[in-house]
What we know:
Blueprint: E1 3-4, E2 11-12, E3 23-27, E4 38-42, H1 43-52, H2 55-61, H3 65-69, H4 75-81, H5 95-98
Antiparallel strand pairs: 1-2, 3-4
One zinc ion binds near residues 26, 27 and 50.
Amino acid sequence: MPTTCALCRRIIPDERIADPQVVQEHHLRPEERADSPTVSLCRPCHKQVHALFTNEELRDDFDTTETLRNADRLQPYLAWIRGTEKLDIDVTTSDHVRERR
Ligand SMILES: [Zn+2]
Ligand SMILES: [Zn+2]
């Protein structure tokens, strides 16, 4: 069964899932892992989410797939990734996130 990334909605073919890191579980409410729902994200989306949002923001404002998918901050990334087949990208943590670590 191919996996669909909950964020970019790209379908990841089985043969590419041979790399166990390609699909990652994202905890929608980071730091409340015990009762946090999880969604399957492709590796680029997972990296990007954590580069653009602090755990606090994720927990407070973006704890559903819908709010994440509609987040203004993610739109340029989503528009780009949907047009590629990349499953590995370099992500720079935004200053916004870095300053709050
Ligand atoms: Zn994705
Ligand atoms: Zn995550």
